Protein: FAD-dependent monooxygenase
Organism: Kribbella yunnanensis
Amino acid sequence: MSPQRVLIVGASIAGPALAWWLHRYGFEVTVVERAPALRPGGYKIDIRGAAIDVVEQMGLKERLEGMATDMQFMSFVNRAGRRLVDVPSDLFMGRGEADLEVMRGDLSQILYDETRANVDYRFGDTIAELDPVTGGVSFERAEPQTFDLVIGADGLNSTVRRQVFGGDVVRDLNHVVSIATVPNHLELDRWELVYSVPGRTVNLYSTGRDADAKALFLFGTDQKYEGREQQLEILNTTFRGAGWETDRLLDAVAVADDFYFDTVSQVELDRYAVDRVSLVGDAAYCPSFASGQGTSLALVGAYTLAGELSQSAPATAFATYERLMRPYVARNLKLGRDNLGRMISKSALQSWAGAMMLRVLPKLPMKDALVAKITQPIHDAARAIELPAY
């Protein structure tokens, strides 16, 4: 029999990871991506728990270890820039011994490099219309084609999901995150600084692999802003004059090449497949950046979906994929909602008290038990699935 032809929409993390596994199982894979080239940049991301098992099976763990951010400390600073407390990065982020932190762009490049010889990548195009019953696809630029399966790996604002699944499934958590590359004017070396004022948080960090730094702004709002000009305007309105290095960072962000701005949102679907079409990664179950688990869900989802398709007819494979992923997804969606409340202080007193707690924590007799209690929800969410052997 001829190999099944699969179209994957999206070439960030979930798409190329799924392409890797599908090619291994003998599928003929095409990946279409709206961007004209692979998207570099982005913020640091975690690979935890079950996702570590996936990258080990892909033979990529050692290579990713060589690209680790190697972040050493996180410091909370006040308005004048004085460091209130320094905390080891792994402790604060709740990483287990085997967990990895890398830059999103580095992982994306590795997955692309691992698949480009065996997968048909088509950049600068995307789907225009999709028939989930026949697998017929018309593109914005290329000629129409028919595929045995179509998988949406096109992120939070998935075109595939909108066309096939419909409904308002994006849950806005009423916060916005913005990030960009900026000059490392504070000469940070594998160090992250956090400045918090009521309702707003600024992070600045530089990894062991970057000469520049990343500036991240997080704030609460229920307003919607479209286009870079409006997005920069709301950043300035929200953060200008807030103290510390904020104004200088806003000036740098305004001219950054990789400016990113989006709502902090989650995706909650009542099904992951319709006829010949399924979803993976953020398109199906975005847990929000606050969870720190979006990349891990994408890697585990790609592994599970491809594995089930290698063993069963699509309808059965899609159903089993959903059954296996549901509890894992639910745990990580909750983690994202819970974490967001801890990332932004509601008052100056709360911000100060949080920093002081971290300062005294290493001196407490039960510090290990306290740290374990704080970080246990992260570890539980990261391991909330038993990976089948395919």
